[in-house]
Amino acid sequence: MESIHLKSVDPTSQDLLRIAARRGLELSWERYEAQQPQDGFQRSGLSCAFGCLHGPCRIDPFGRGAANGICGIDRDQMVAASLLRLSLNGALEAGVSGDGCAQAANMLSRPQGSVEELVRAAVGLGVSAFKASGDSTGVSGAFKVGYGVLAGDGPVIGVCGRADEEFVAALISANGPGRVVSLGDWISVGGELLPFACSSGEAELAIASGCISQVVCGAGADPAILAVCEQAGVPVGVEAIDTIAGATDFVPQPGQVGEGAVSAPGDIAKGPLCLIGGTDMPQQSMGWLASELPGALAATGQNVAAWGDAALWATKAGTAGVQVLDPVRGPWDACEAAGPDLKGICFTGLSGCRDLATALGAAASGARVCAATPLPVWGSEAVCDALTEIVGEAGGEFAHFDHPASADEILAWFG
Protein backbone atom coordinates (compact mmCIF):
# COMPACT_ATOMS: atom_id res chain seq x y z
CA MET A 1 0.00 0.00 0.00
CA GLU A 2 3.05 2.27 -0.24
CA SER A 3 1.71 3.60 -3.55
CA ILE A 4 -1.72 4.44 -2.14
CA HIS A 5 -1.33 8.15 -2.98
CA LEU A 6 -1.02 7.13 -6.65
CA LYS A 7 -4.46 5.54 -6.54
CA SER A 8 -6.45 8.47 -5.16
CA VAL A 9 -5.87 12.07 -4.10
CA ASP A 10 -8.75 11.92 -1.61
CA PRO A 11 -7.65 11.13 1.99
CA THR A 12 -10.98 9.42 2.73
CA SER A 13 -10.64 7.24 -0.36
CA GLN A 14 -7.10 6.38 0.77
CA ASP A 15 -8.50 5.29 4.15
CA LEU A 16 -11.04 3.12 2.36
CA LEU A 17 -8.29 1.56 0.26
CA ARG A 18 -6.57 0.55 3.49
CA ILE A 19 -9.84 -0.82 4.89
CA ALA A 20 -10.37 -2.86 1.74
CA ALA A 21 -6.84 -4.25 2.04
CA ARG A 22 -7.42 -5.24 5.67
CA ARG A 23 -10.67 -6.94 4.68
CA GLY A 24 -8.85 -8.85 1.94
CA LEU A 25 -10.93 -7.34 -0.86
CA GLU A 26 -9.42 -7.32 -4.34
CA LEU A 27 -10.35 -4.10 -6.12
CA SER A 28 -9.84 -2.88 -9.67
CA TRP A 29 -6.49 -1.33 -8.71
CA GLU A 30 -5.08 -4.74 -7.77
CA ARG A 31 -6.43 -6.21 -11.00
CA TYR A 32 -4.92 -3.31 -12.95
CA GLU A 33 -1.52 -3.86 -11.36
CA ALA A 34 -1.74 -7.60 -12.08
CA GLN A 35 -2.25 -6.80 -15.77
CA GLN A 36 1.06 -4.91 -16.04
CA PRO A 37 2.70 -4.75 -18.45
CA GLN A 38 -0.42 -4.56 -20.57
CA ASP A 39 -0.46 -5.88 -24.13
CA GLY A 40 1.73 -3.52 -26.14
CA PHE A 41 0.15 -4.67 -29.41
CA GLN A 42 -3.33 -3.66 -28.27
CA ARG A 43 -2.09 -0.40 -26.74
CA SER A 44 -0.45 0.65 -30.00
CA GLY A 45 -3.30 -0.56 -32.25
CA LEU A 46 -1.17 -3.32 -33.80
CA SER A 47 -3.56 -6.17 -32.98
CA CYS A 48 -5.90 -6.78 -35.90
CA ALA A 49 -9.47 -5.50 -35.65
CA PHE A 50 -10.77 -7.08 -38.85
CA GLY A 51 -13.34 -9.85 -38.61
CA CYS A 52 -11.89 -12.52 -40.90
CA LEU A 53 -11.02 -14.89 -37.98
CA HIS A 54 -7.91 -16.12 -39.79
CA GLY A 55 -5.86 -14.63 -36.97
CA PRO A 56 -5.88 -12.72 -34.76
CA CYS A 57 -2.80 -11.20 -36.32
CA ARG A 58 -0.47 -8.65 -34.84
CA ILE A 59 2.45 -6.67 -36.19
CA ASP A 60 5.77 -6.17 -34.43
CA PRO A 61 6.19 -2.45 -33.69
CA PHE A 62 10.00 -2.78 -33.75
CA GLY A 63 10.31 -4.44 -37.13
CA ARG A 64 11.78 -7.67 -35.76
CA GLY A 65 8.70 -9.84 -36.25
CA ALA A 66 5.64 -9.94 -38.47
CA ALA A 67 5.33 -6.88 -40.74
CA ASN A 68 1.99 -7.86 -42.29
CA GLY A 69 -1.17 -9.69 -41.36
CA ILE A 70 -2.03 -13.03 -42.96
CA CYS A 71 -4.14 -11.17 -45.51
CA GLY A 72 -1.27 -8.83 -46.33
CA ILE A 73 -2.35 -5.59 -44.61
CA ASP A 74 0.41 -3.48 -43.12
CA ARG A 75 0.76 -1.75 -39.76
CA ASP A 76 -0.93 1.46 -40.92
CA GLN A 77 -4.07 -0.30 -42.11
CA MET A 78 -4.19 -2.39 -38.94
CA VAL A 79 -4.03 0.66 -36.65
CA ALA A 80 -6.58 2.54 -38.77
CA ALA A 81 -8.94 -0.43 -38.58
CA SER A 82 -8.54 -0.56 -34.77
CA LEU A 83 -9.57 3.08 -34.56
CA LEU A 84 -12.54 2.49 -36.86
CA ARG A 85 -13.79 -0.46 -34.80
CA LEU A 86 -13.65 1.56 -31.58
CA SER A 87 -15.45 4.48 -33.21
CA LEU A 88 -18.11 2.19 -34.69
CA ASN A 89 -18.78 0.65 -31.28
CA GLY A 90 -18.99 4.13 -29.77
CA ALA A 91 -21.45 5.30 -32.41
CA LEU A 92 -23.63 2.25 -31.82
CA GLU A 93 -23.58 2.90 -28.06
CA ALA A 94 -24.75 6.45 -28.79
CA GLY A 95 -27.73 5.10 -30.75
CA VAL A 96 -26.36 5.95 -34.19
CA SER A 97 -27.60 3.79 -37.06
CA GLY A 98 -27.81 4.00 -40.82
CA ASP A 99 -25.46 3.85 -43.78
CA GLY A 100 -22.38 5.09 -41.94
CA CYS A 101 -22.48 2.20 -39.47
CA ALA A 102 -23.27 -0.33 -42.20
CA GLN A 103 -20.39 0.90 -44.35
CA ALA A 104 -17.97 0.79 -41.42
CA ALA A 105 -19.03 -2.74 -40.55
CA ASN A 106 -18.50 -3.74 -44.17
CA MET A 107 -15.04 -2.16 -44.20
CA LEU A 108 -14.18 -4.19 -41.10
CA SER A 109 -15.57 -7.49 -42.35
CA ARG A 110 -12.59 -7.96 -44.68
CA PRO A 111 -9.59 -5.68 -45.19
CA GLN A 112 -10.56 -2.91 -47.58
CA GLY A 113 -9.97 0.80 -47.77
CA SER A 114 -6.90 2.98 -47.50
CA VAL A 115 -5.62 4.40 -44.24
CA GLU A 116 -7.26 7.73 -45.05
CA GLU A 117 -10.58 6.08 -45.88
CA LEU A 118 -10.58 4.05 -42.65
CA VAL A 119 -9.67 7.07 -40.49
CA ARG A 120 -12.17 9.29 -42.28
CA ALA A 121 -14.90 6.71 -41.63
CA ALA A 122 -13.93 6.60 -37.93
CA VAL A 123 -14.07 10.37 -37.65
CA GLY A 124 -17.41 10.50 -39.49
CA LEU A 125 -18.92 8.07 -36.99
CA GLY A 126 -17.53 10.23 -34.20
CA VAL A 127 -19.36 13.26 -35.60
CA SER A 128 -22.59 11.23 -35.64
CA ALA A 129 -22.04 10.16 -32.02
CA PHE A 130 -21.33 13.75 -30.98
CA LYS A 131 -24.51 14.98 -32.65
CA ALA A 132 -26.47 12.16 -31.00
CA SER A 133 -25.33 13.42 -27.59
CA GLY A 134 -27.15 16.67 -28.34
CA ASP A 135 -30.35 14.74 -28.96
CA SER A 136 -30.22 12.90 -25.63
CA THR A 137 -32.51 13.64 -22.72
CA GLY A 138 -30.47 15.53 -20.18
CA VAL A 139 -30.54 15.64 -16.40
CA SER A 140 -30.89 18.76 -14.30
CA GLY A 141 -31.23 19.99 -10.76
CA ALA A 142 -29.20 20.09 -7.57
CA PHE A 143 -27.24 17.16 -6.19
CA LYS A 144 -24.99 16.12 -3.32
CA VAL A 145 -21.81 14.08 -3.60
CA GLY A 146 -19.45 12.58 -1.05
CA TYR A 147 -19.14 9.78 1.48
CA GLY A 148 -21.15 11.91 3.87
CA VAL A 149 -24.38 10.90 2.13
CA LEU A 150 -23.84 7.45 3.64
CA ALA A 151 -24.18 8.85 7.17
CA GLY A 152 -27.38 8.41 9.12
CA ASP A 153 -29.56 5.63 10.44
CA GLY A 154 -30.98 2.79 8.42
CA PRO A 155 -29.71 0.71 5.52
CA VAL A 156 -28.28 2.39 2.43
CA ILE A 157 -29.04 1.03 -1.04
CA GLY A 158 -26.51 1.75 -3.77
CA VAL A 159 -27.72 2.01 -7.37
CA CYS A 160 -25.52 1.83 -10.45
CA GLY A 161 -25.95 1.56 -14.19
CA ARG A 162 -29.05 2.59 -16.13
CA ALA A 163 -31.60 1.58 -13.52
CA ASP A 164 -35.32 1.74 -14.21
CA GLU A 165 -36.66 5.05 -12.88
CA GLU A 166 -39.95 3.66 -11.60
CA PHE A 167 -38.16 0.91 -9.72
CA VAL A 168 -35.71 3.34 -8.12
CA ALA A 169 -38.64 5.59 -7.17
CA ALA A 170 -40.22 2.62 -5.41
CA LEU A 171 -36.96 1.99 -3.51
CA ILE A 172 -36.92 5.61 -2.34
CA SER A 173 -40.55 5.37 -1.26
CA ALA A 174 -39.87 2.21 0.74
CA ASN A 175 -36.57 3.30 2.34
CA GLY A 176 -36.94 7.06 2.67
CA PRO A 177 -35.15 9.96 0.99
CA GLY A 178 -31.39 9.91 1.23
CA ARG A 179 -31.19 6.16 1.85
CA VAL A 180 -30.93 5.33 -1.85
CA VAL A 181 -27.70 6.65 -3.37
CA SER A 182 -25.89 6.51 -6.68
CA LEU A 183 -22.57 4.72 -6.96
CA GLY A 184 -21.28 7.19 -9.53
CA ASP A 185 -23.96 7.12 -12.24
CA TRP A 186 -26.15 10.15 -12.98
CA ILE A 187 -29.57 8.77 -12.06
CA SER A 188 -32.60 11.05 -12.19
CA VAL A 189 -35.85 10.12 -10.46
CA GLY A 190 -38.84 12.41 -10.76
CA GLY A 191 -36.61 15.16 -12.09
CA GLU A 192 -34.21 14.97 -9.15
CA LEU A 193 -30.75 13.43 -9.11
CA LEU A 194 -29.93 10.72 -6.60
CA PRO A 195 -27.26 11.82 -4.13
CA PHE A 196 -23.85 10.49 -5.17
CA ALA A 197 -21.99 8.43 -2.64
CA CYS A 198 -18.95 8.72 -4.89
CA SER A 199 -17.64 9.04 -8.42
CA SER A 200 -17.77 5.96 -10.63
CA GLY A 201 -14.14 5.14 -9.85
CA GLU A 202 -14.85 5.13 -6.11
CA ALA A 203 -17.85 2.77 -6.27
CA GLU A 204 -15.86 -0.24 -5.12
CA LEU A 205 -14.54 1.77 -2.17
CA ALA A 206 -18.06 2.79 -1.13
CA ILE A 207 -19.05 -0.87 -1.06
CA ALA A 208 -15.83 -1.87 0.73
CA SER A 209 -16.66 0.70 3.44
CA GLY A 210 -19.34 -1.59 4.84
CA CYS A 211 -21.91 1.21 4.72
CA ILE A 212 -23.79 -0.11 1.67
CA SER A 213 -26.35 -2.74 2.65
CA GLN A 214 -27.62 -3.64 -0.80
CA VAL A 215 -26.76 -2.90 -4.42
CA VAL A 216 -29.12 -2.66 -7.36
CA CYS A 217 -27.50 -2.87 -10.80
CA GLY A 218 -29.13 -1.48 -13.93
CA ALA A 219 -28.04 -2.04 -17.51
CA GLY A 220 -24.43 -1.17 -18.18
CA ALA A 221 -23.31 -1.48 -14.56
CA ASP A 222 -19.59 -2.02 -14.09
CA PRO A 223 -18.82 -5.75 -13.59
CA ALA A 224 -16.35 -4.71 -10.87
CA ILE A 225 -19.36 -3.79 -8.71
CA LEU A 226 -20.62 -7.36 -8.78
CA ALA A 227 -17.14 -8.69 -8.04
CA VAL A 228 -16.60 -6.58 -4.92
CA CYS A 229 -20.16 -7.20 -3.70
CA GLU A 230 -19.54 -10.94 -3.85
CA GLN A 231 -16.29 -10.59 -1.91
CA ALA A 232 -17.77 -8.23 0.68
CA GLY A 233 -20.98 -10.22 1.15
CA VAL A 234 -23.20 -7.35 0.01
CA PRO A 235 -26.42 -8.64 -1.58
CA VAL A 236 -27.16 -7.63 -5.16
CA GLY A 237 -30.82 -7.58 -6.16
CA VAL A 238 -34.20 -6.31 -5.16
CA GLU A 239 -34.94 -8.23 -1.99
CA ALA A 240 -35.74 -6.01 1.00
CA ILE A 241 -32.81 -5.44 3.35
CA ASP A 242 -33.32 -4.10 6.85
CA THR A 243 -29.87 -4.34 8.37
CA ILE A 244 -26.74 -2.22 7.94
CA ALA A 245 -23.61 -4.01 6.75
CA GLY A 246 -21.78 -2.55 9.74
CA ALA A 247 -18.20 -1.46 9.10
CA THR A 248 -16.46 -0.87 12.41
CA ASP A 249 -13.48 1.05 11.02
CA PHE A 250 -15.19 3.64 8.81
CA VAL A 251 -17.80 6.10 9.99
CA PRO A 252 -18.91 8.58 7.33
CA GLN A 253 -19.25 12.15 8.51
CA PRO A 254 -22.23 14.25 7.38
CA GLY A 255 -19.88 17.09 6.52
CA GLN A 256 -18.10 15.01 3.86
CA VAL A 257 -20.48 16.28 1.19
CA GLY A 258 -20.21 18.73 -1.67
CA GLU A 259 -23.27 20.35 -3.21
CA GLY A 260 -23.78 21.41 -6.81
CA ALA A 261 -26.34 21.81 -9.55
CA VAL A 262 -26.42 20.98 -13.25
CA SER A 263 -26.53 24.11 -15.40
CA ALA A 264 -29.25 24.33 -18.03
CA PRO A 265 -27.91 24.80 -21.58
CA GLY A 266 -29.08 28.42 -21.64
CA ASP A 267 -27.20 29.20 -18.42
CA ILE A 268 -23.75 28.08 -19.60
CA ALA A 269 -21.29 30.96 -19.29
CA LYS A 270 -20.51 32.91 -22.42
CA GLY A 271 -17.04 34.01 -23.40
CA PRO A 272 -13.83 31.91 -23.34
CA LEU A 273 -14.78 28.55 -21.86
CA CYS A 274 -12.66 25.55 -20.81
CA LEU A 275 -14.32 22.15 -20.44
CA ILE A 276 -13.03 19.38 -18.17
CA GLY A 277 -14.79 16.02 -18.16
CA GLY A 278 -14.64 12.29 -18.43
CA THR A 279 -14.41 9.36 -16.07
CA ASP A 280 -12.00 8.06 -13.45
CA MET A 281 -9.29 5.86 -14.96
CA PRO A 282 -6.83 3.47 -13.25
CA GLN A 283 -3.92 5.00 -15.20
CA GLN A 284 -4.23 8.21 -13.17
CA SER A 285 -4.55 8.95 -9.48
CA MET A 286 -8.29 9.16 -8.89
CA GLY A 287 -9.49 12.74 -8.82
CA TRP A 288 -6.07 14.21 -9.62
CA LEU A 289 -6.72 15.90 -12.97
CA ALA A 290 -10.31 16.71 -12.01
CA SER A 291 -9.11 18.45 -8.84
CA GLU A 292 -6.08 20.21 -10.32
CA LEU A 293 -7.29 21.46 -13.68
CA PRO A 294 -10.53 23.37 -12.88
CA GLY A 295 -8.99 25.33 -10.02
CA ALA A 296 -5.83 26.16 -11.96
CA LEU A 297 -7.80 27.36 -14.97
CA ALA A 298 -10.29 29.33 -12.89
CA ALA A 299 -7.39 31.02 -11.10
CA THR A 300 -6.27 32.47 -14.43
CA GLY A 301 -9.71 34.02 -14.98
CA GLN A 302 -11.06 31.34 -17.32
CA ASN A 303 -14.68 30.22 -17.36
CA VAL A 304 -14.60 26.52 -16.47
CA ALA A 305 -17.27 23.85 -16.83
CA ALA A 306 -17.08 20.15 -15.98
CA TRP A 307 -19.09 17.01 -16.58
CA GLY A 308 -19.05 13.36 -15.51
CA ASP A 309 -16.70 12.19 -12.76
CA ALA A 310 -14.67 15.37 -13.18
CA ALA A 311 -17.72 17.42 -12.18
CA LEU A 312 -18.23 15.26 -9.09
CA TRP A 313 -14.62 15.69 -7.99
CA ALA A 314 -14.76 19.46 -8.55
CA THR A 315 -17.98 19.62 -6.52
CA LYS A 316 -16.52 17.52 -3.70
CA ALA A 317 -13.48 19.79 -3.63
CA GLY A 318 -15.68 22.88 -3.54
CA THR A 319 -13.79 24.41 -6.49
CA ALA A 320 -15.25 27.88 -6.96
CA GLY A 321 -16.59 29.06 -10.29
CA VAL A 322 -16.95 25.65 -11.97
CA GLN A 323 -20.24 25.01 -13.74
CA VAL A 324 -21.58 21.46 -13.83
CA LEU A 325 -22.82 20.17 -17.19
CA ASP A 326 -25.03 17.27 -18.16
CA PRO A 327 -22.90 14.08 -18.22
CA VAL A 328 -23.87 13.21 -21.82
CA ARG A 329 -25.00 16.46 -23.40
CA GLY A 330 -22.34 18.58 -21.68
CA PRO A 331 -19.74 18.97 -24.47
CA TRP A 332 -22.46 19.51 -27.09
CA ASP A 333 -24.27 22.15 -25.03
CA ALA A 334 -21.03 23.95 -24.21
CA CYS A 335 -19.95 24.01 -27.86
CA GLU A 336 -23.34 25.46 -28.78
CA ALA A 337 -23.15 28.09 -26.04
CA ALA A 338 -19.51 29.14 -26.38
CA GLY A 339 -19.16 28.87 -30.16
CA PRO A 340 -15.80 30.25 -31.30
CA ASP A 341 -14.99 31.29 -27.72
CA LEU A 342 -14.60 27.66 -26.64
CA LYS A 343 -10.95 27.35 -25.60
CA GLY A 344 -10.93 23.58 -25.48
CA ILE A 345 -12.37 20.32 -24.18
CA CYS A 346 -10.24 17.97 -22.08
CA PHE A 347 -11.38 14.38 -21.58
CA THR A 348 -9.54 13.38 -18.40
CA GLY A 349 -10.53 9.76 -19.03
CA LEU A 350 -12.18 7.76 -21.81
CA SER A 351 -14.11 4.99 -20.11
CA GLY A 352 -15.36 3.41 -23.32
CA CYS A 353 -15.90 3.61 -27.03
CA ARG A 354 -18.68 6.19 -26.77
CA ASP A 355 -16.36 8.65 -25.03
CA LEU A 356 -13.75 8.15 -27.74
CA ALA A 357 -16.28 8.61 -30.55
CA THR A 358 -17.68 11.74 -28.88
CA ALA A 359 -14.19 13.21 -28.47
CA LEU A 360 -13.38 12.52 -32.13
CA GLY A 361 -16.72 13.99 -33.20
CA ALA A 362 -16.30 17.17 -31.15
CA ALA A 363 -12.85 17.72 -32.67
CA ALA A 364 -14.12 17.04 -36.20
CA SER A 365 -16.93 19.53 -35.57
CA GLY A 366 -14.42 22.32 -35.10
CA ALA A 367 -13.52 22.17 -31.38
CA ARG A 368 -10.10 21.88 -29.76
CA VAL A 369 -10.11 18.52 -27.95
CA CYS A 370 -7.52 16.88 -25.74
CA ALA A 371 -7.64 13.28 -24.48
CA ALA A 372 -5.53 12.53 -21.40
CA THR A 373 -6.00 8.78 -21.87
CA PRO A 374 -3.56 7.15 -24.34
CA LEU A 375 -5.20 6.04 -27.59
CA PRO A 376 -4.30 2.85 -29.51
CA VAL A 377 -3.05 4.71 -32.58
CA TRP A 378 0.62 5.25 -31.78
CA GLY A 379 1.67 2.16 -33.72
CA SER A 380 1.26 4.13 -36.94
CA GLU A 381 2.59 7.58 -37.69
CA ALA A 382 0.47 7.58 -40.85
CA VAL A 383 -2.73 7.15 -38.84
CA CYS A 384 -1.79 9.92 -36.41
CA ASP A 385 -1.04 12.21 -39.35
CA ALA A 386 -4.30 11.31 -41.11
CA LEU A 387 -6.28 11.94 -37.93
CA THR A 388 -4.68 15.37 -37.51
CA GLU A 389 -5.31 16.29 -41.14
CA ILE A 390 -8.95 15.12 -41.28
CA VAL A 391 -9.88 16.85 -38.03
CA GLY A 392 -8.05 19.98 -39.15
CA GLU A 393 -10.17 20.18 -42.30
CA ALA A 394 -13.09 21.19 -40.07
CA GLY A 395 -10.98 23.67 -38.13
CA GLY A 396 -10.67 21.39 -35.11
CA GLU A 397 -7.81 19.90 -33.16
CA PHE A 398 -7.42 16.50 -31.53
CA ALA A 399 -4.49 16.31 -29.13
CA HIS A 400 -3.62 12.96 -27.59
CA PHE A 401 -0.66 11.44 -25.80
CA ASP A 402 1.19 8.14 -25.84
CA HIS A 403 1.17 8.21 -22.03
CA PRO A 404 -1.23 9.31 -19.27
CA ALA A 405 -1.00 13.09 -19.52
CA SER A 406 -0.04 15.20 -16.53
CA ALA A 407 -1.93 18.26 -15.33
CA ASP A 408 0.94 20.50 -16.47
CA GLU A 409 0.78 19.07 -20.00
CA ILE A 410 -2.94 19.70 -20.23
CA LEU A 411 -2.67 23.22 -18.79
CA ALA A 412 0.03 23.97 -21.36
CA TRP A 413 -2.29 22.66 -24.09
CA PHE A 414 -5.09 24.97 -22.95
CA GLY A 415 -2.54 27.78 -23.23
Structural notes for this entry:
There is one protein chain. The model has no long low-confidence stretch (mean pLDDT 91). The chain is 40% helix and 13% strand. With 415 residues, it is an alpha/beta fold. It is globular and about 65 Å long. A six-stranded parallel β-sheet has the order 10-9-8-11-12-13, with helices on both faces.
Provide tags for this entry.
alpha/beta, single chain, three-stranded parallel beta sheet, 15 helices, 415 residues, six-stranded parallel beta sheet, globular
Short synopsis of the structure:
The chain has 15 helices and 13 strands.
Query: What is the approximate shape?
Result: globular
Question: Helicity range of the residues?
Answer: 25-40%
Give the DSSP E fraction (strand runs of 2 or more residues).
Answer: 5-15%
Terminal CA distance:
36 Å
**Helical region count?**
15
Strands of the largest sheet, in order across it?
10-9-8-11-12-13
Described by strand count, sense and barrel closure, the largest sheet is: 6 strands, parallel
Unreliable stretches, pLDDT < 50, 5 or more residues? Answer: none
Topology, number of strands: 13
Order of helices and strands: HHHHHHEEHEEEHEHEEHEHEHEHEHEH
Structural class computed from helices and strand pairing? alpha/beta
What integer value in Å does the Rg equal? 22 Å
